[in-house]
Structures are given as C-alpha cells and as structure tokens.
Amino acid sequence: MNSAAGKDTMHPDDPRTTRTTPAPRTVTVAYAGGDERRGPLTMGQANMIRCILRDDPEHINNHDVWAIPPGAGPDDIVDALRALALRHEGLRTTFPHAPGSPPVEQVVAAEGTFTVTVLDHTEFPEEPARYAESVARAARAGRFALDREFPLRISLLTLRGVPVHAALASSHAVTDGSALAVLREEFLTLLAGEELPAPASFAPLDLAAEEASPTGKRKSEASLRYWERIIRTEPQEMFAEPRAAGADGRARQLTLRSGRGARALAAAAGRTGNPEATVLLAAWCALVAHRAGQYSCVTAVPTSNRFHARSARSVNTLSQDALLCLDVRVPSFDTLVRKTWGAALNAYKHSQFDSVRLWEMIDGVTGERGSHFARDVVFNDVSVLPATLLSTVPQEHVGAELDLTWGPFQALPTRMLAFTYETAPQLHISLWADPALFTSDETEGFLTGLVRLLEAAAAGDVSLDSLTGVTGIRPAERGPDWVRVDGCWVSPSAVRKALSGALGGLPVHIDTDREAGLTAYMARGGDTSLTPDRAHEALMAEVPAHGGTGVIAPRRYVLVESPPAEADRSAAWRGLQIIEEGTGRSRQVRHER
Asked: DSSP H helical segments within 234-273, as ranges?
C-alpha cells in the first residue's frame, strides 16, 4: 500500500516559502505483522467517500501539525509512525472499486509500505509552526487514491537534520479530526518511550458489523425519521437573506482565546446547574438564530458519535452529523439551556444513519417541499473529547483575557463553521464565517458577543429579547420584500425571477399569503405544453444554479393565457380565467376552458 502523494504535496501554498523550500527526500517505511481483513464499509466511511468522490479535495481532506519533542531523531519518528500503522487497522485500509463505481468494501492489509517526505532546512522561511501549517495545508490538495494510497501524507520538517515538525494531510475516508488528535497523542507517547495500552475502541470493520446488526438497523431507521421531520418543517436555510447571494465559498479563520470567556462559561454553568458544553451550545444557538432572524437554530454537531466509549478514541472517520434543531422562542436564556440538553441528546441519538438513504430522503423532500436543504451552520465542540485538535498555543496568546487572531482563508462548504478546542483555562474557539454574510468586524463581533452573553448569563438570567443590547449582534436586515413562508424566509421577487427564468422568460406573478403560502400565476402565451408539473420541475432544476437564497417553490401554480394590464397587482391576476392549476407535485386540479 504505497503512498501516491503527488508533487503538489511537497510544497507549501505560500509563495514566500516555496522559494526557500529544500528539495524533498523520500523515505520508504515498511511495516508487517498486522491482521489481514475485509468487509463492508461503515456508515461514516460511506458518507465521507460520497463527499470525497464529489467535492473539492481541499474541502474534504484533513490536516494536522505535530510538534516533535527535543531529542527525538528521524529513526525514532519512523519507528513511531510504523507502530501506529500496525496498531490501527484504519491506517492499513484501502477501498478497492471499479472505475466509475463507489467502493462498497474495505480491505485491511497485513503488511505494506508508506512514505515520509523529509524537508531539511538550513533555516525556516518563517515562524516554524506557521510554516509547518502551510506545508500541511498544501498537502490537502489532490484527491487521495482510495484503492491504493496510504491515508496519511507525511512531511517531516527538519532544521539542519534535527526534526522540528511533522506536517500531515489525511484522507477523510480513514480519519476525521478527532482521529488525527488520537494519533498525535499516541505518536508523542511513543516518542517519550512509553507503552500504549491496547486499543479500547472499535476498529472500522467491527463498527460496520455493529451497524449491520438488527439494533444498528433500527437506529438508522429512527435517525432517518428524525432528520425527515426537521427537513420537512424547519428553515431550509439559516441565512436566507439578501447578502447570502454573494458567497464565493471561502472564509478566513478567526480564533478566539479568552480567559474571560472561560470564567464566564464556568460561572454560567454553575449558576444554571448544567454542563459547560450545554451552556455553550445554548449560547451558540441563541446567537445564530438571533443573527439569522429565525425562530429556531438548525445546526450540525458532527462530534456526536465520539461520545460513546467504543468510539471515543477510534482511528476511523465517524463523520456523521447530529442535526440539532432548537426552538429559541422562549423568554430567557435559562429556559433555553434547559431545552438544549434534551434537544442535544435527541440529536446525538439520531446521528447513525445510511447516508445514501438519507440523501435519497432529502432529495425527495426537496421536490415535495420545493426547497433545498442547506447545511448552513456547523458547531464542532471537541473540547470534551479524550483527545482534541488543540494545536500548540503561541506564547503570546497564553493567558489572554480576550484575544482575536486572524488566520488563513480556506474553502468553506457551509455558511458558518466553529470548532471549540477548549473551555478552560481559556475559551478557545475558531470560527469561519462566510464573508458575504459577515464583514471582518461582524465576525469579530460574533465571537466577542458570545463572550458577552456568557458573562451576562454568569451574572443572572438573560432575556432573549435583549440579545442585541447584551451582545452587540444585530439581526439580519431583509427589507419589505421578504416574508416568512412554511417556516422559511422567502423573497417573492426572487421566486418570480427564478421561475420566469426557468420558463424561458414567461410572465410570472407571485401572490403571497402567509397562511396559504405562495401562488405562482404564469401567462403561458403560445406555450401549450406548460403544466404545473412542468413549471415545478423547471423551477427545482433552476434553484441550485440560481443560488437558492430566499427561493422556495410556490404551493400552487396557476396557468392563464396572458398577463393582465396591471401585471404587478395580485387582484388583477386573480380575476383572469384559469386554464389549469395544481401543486406541480403530480396532484394538480384541472379546469376546463
């Protein structure tokens, strides 16, 4: 199982560093003595492989930087990496498949090889940890060859022969962020000369067997029903607003380190009698819903499957979202915290599912409801896990009362992503917020507003009507054209433009009724083939290209022959003779002329 990492994995993405990067030297590492096994994919593997085959590798691949302790030589590092490969079946796993077909099984090798790229420097081109980060991030480029490539691309950065950092990119089919943190912890333990206990968590094939059991199948079915209820009834976009149309899919990392925030969180948890993780999640949801102007906060919380003892330290990809839906229509923060505990447990309980069937369900609801579900918000609290992604904190940030640091841009497949790395002695959160929705000042204001809310909650209960004054965060401005329909913020003019464009420019009018939803009047002219079904199908095909922001399909499509003279008045359209009307969802009612 040889590494297939390409040349683009050898160089950092910063042009300032590329000029001084030394020529790489490749070391091939052999391992033997493991068990050879094969079997079906886990649900998490199938979920991530679907994304790997579809999405940009920079969105999907992971990376990490491991600081090398003083005294560890290159041979020590190679020995530790070899030991990890033998210890964890996931690192010896490939996914054979026919060209054009997704994998359906995994194969664990008993022996094989992998490579380490050594970059020896006479001096580093910039601060060593930041340089190592750029090397690791650059290695994310390029899709992993699932059928043959070792799942770690490893670069050893040395200074005049002395190892300083290991910079890694990893395949998300084999590791998630928490798995990388487990590997880092065990790597450092081995370099310290200590023995590792026997693995206590499931290997991927063992997890696959449990998921295929009758109990596992019942859990999956229950999860699908839970997800379907949320996707059918809750906001399809958290950030449906005019500014969302300008997104380009990249965001800059902003990191908060705050002693104030840690003390406030601990005090709020003590005052309310709830775990810190629950209080922090409630504060996050309250602010997201407040900023988005929504009645509920729908957020993915991906670390859910790490809360079981059998999987807490598994070197495997367990990336299946728990989908949290928290209704924020309560009077106070304390009430919301009490609701958050139950809502989070319900979400975690329903985070094991067949991802193919999940997306089949989402596609079905898309057509029936007439809107596209957007994974707008992700909150990943890894602070409570046995091993975290917490990197070495730069000395200048140690003990900071409230410090905000901007990092690099990266591809962002969502609108808002947060990682909580620790809650004590500092509150340490990294946030990526879509710059189309949040200016730099607004992004900073969101994190400082979170600290302010925790400080207010530490002192006493907080009215949720006072969040703007308490935090400084203002709700989205939408303007008079926007209305709330079927639990979603909708722009009727955006719906009209999307539907008219989908129908080749035919005149369209959208009539709005908060109870009955949207009705689309369409003047078919000479197009006698136009039907409600065809109109709905054309609109749903157009919405992804249109961007989808503020667009939901009308509940009713009405065909008339020609537009009225006063084409901007709903009453004028209502007075026309109807040729045909229906939902567009194959249940239309026909009228004879």
From this structure: 259-272
What is the residue whose two structure tokens read 């707008």? 376
pTM: 0.84
Q: Please give the single-letter amino acid code of residue 475.
A: P
Say if residues 191 and 69 touch (Cβ distance below 8 Å): yes
Residue 22 pLDDT exceeds 70: yes
pLDDT in tens, 310-360: 787 889 988 778 999 999 999 999 999 999 999 999 998 898 888 889 989
Q: Per residue in 525-574, pLDDT tens?
A: 888 899 999 999 999 988 876 666 899 999 999 999 999 999 999 999 99
Cis amide prior to 425 (ω within 30 degrees):
yes
CB 411 within 8 A of CB 427: no
Cα-flanking dihedrals φ and ψ of residue 518, to 5°?
-95, 140
**Cβ atoms 518, 499 nearer than 8 A:** no
DSSP string, 491-546: -HHHHHHHHHHHTTT--EEEEEETTTEEEEEEE-TT-TT--HHHHHHHHHHHHHHH
What is residue 575's three-state secondary structure?
A: coil
CA 183 vs CA 80, 159, 186, 392, 401: distances in Å: 10, 24, 5, 16, 31
Amino acid at 270: G
Closest C-alpha among 121, 116, 142, 144 to residue 131: 121
**Residue 200 burial by Cβ neighbours in a 10 Å radius (0-12, 13-18, 19+):** exposed
Phi, psi dihedral angles at 513 (to 5 degrees):
-135, 120
Report the chain's terminal Cα–Cα distance, integer Å: 70
Alpha helices in 427-484 (DSSP H): 440-459, 467-471
Distant-in-sequence, close-in-space partners of 399: CB < 8 Å, separation ≥ 6: 259, 426
DSSP 173: T
Give the distance, in angstroms, between the CA of residue 526 and the centroid of all CA atoms in the same chain. 46
d(CA 5, CA 477): 47
CB under 8 Å to 267, separation ≥6 — which residues? 458
Q: How many CB atoms lie within 10 A of CB 207?
A: 24
**Residue 207: partners with Cβ closer than 8 Å, 6 or more residues away:** 42, 44, 310, 311, 314, 316
Closest CA to 89 of 111, 70, 73, 74: 111
CA distance linking residue 186 with residue 497, whole number of Å: 56
67 forms bridges with which residues in the sheet? 165
**Dihedral pair phi/psi, residue 113, rounded to 5°:** -140, 160
CA-to-CA distance for 474 and 468, rounded, in angstroms? Answer: 5
Q: What is the distance between the alpha carbons of residues 451 and 144, in angstroms, rounded to a whole number? A: 40
Please identify which residue in the block is written with the tokens 């109807």: 578
Comparing CA positions, the residue from 542, 446, 519, 456 lying closest to residue 239 is 446
